[in-house]
Amino acid sequence: MAAGVKLLAAPGAVQPQLPAQLLPCRVLHDGPAPVAAFLRVQPGSGGELWASFRGRRLGGRELPLPPGYRGVLLREGEPPPGDEGDPQDQWVKVMGTFDVITEWGADAVPSPTAGVALALQWGPLACAIHAPVSDDSDEEAEP
């Protein structure tokens, strides 16, 4: 049997809201970072965002997640005491949540018709095309 991913959840625990930043570069660090100290965001006149990171100008915009969706930051965790499950199972713990992704582009604001903005449209579209069709639909036309 394939290994599974299991969630370590604390009932009733409130997870912190975290900012999600999608940078147009690779950052060789995996863990918490003082982002606010290095990424100082200035709002633009048209609703866009401007900042610089390591001397490079960034243009950005906030992308809210579609209704019914929530982003979750997960971290690997240890199995709970007394767990007798598959030793290959991977346990994860919720560290925080987010409802908005700030997408950044190098020297310009990312296109609203590409990248993450386009990907965020797929969830609601998939729900719409897979939703049940009512029997009383008179949209069925004969060819």
From TrEMBL:
InterPro entries in the record, alphabetically? Answer: RNase_H2_subunit_C, RNase_H2_suC
Give the superkingdom in one word.
Eukaryota
- Identify this protein by name: Ribonuclease H2 subunit C
Organism, per UniProt? Grus japonensis (Japanese crane)
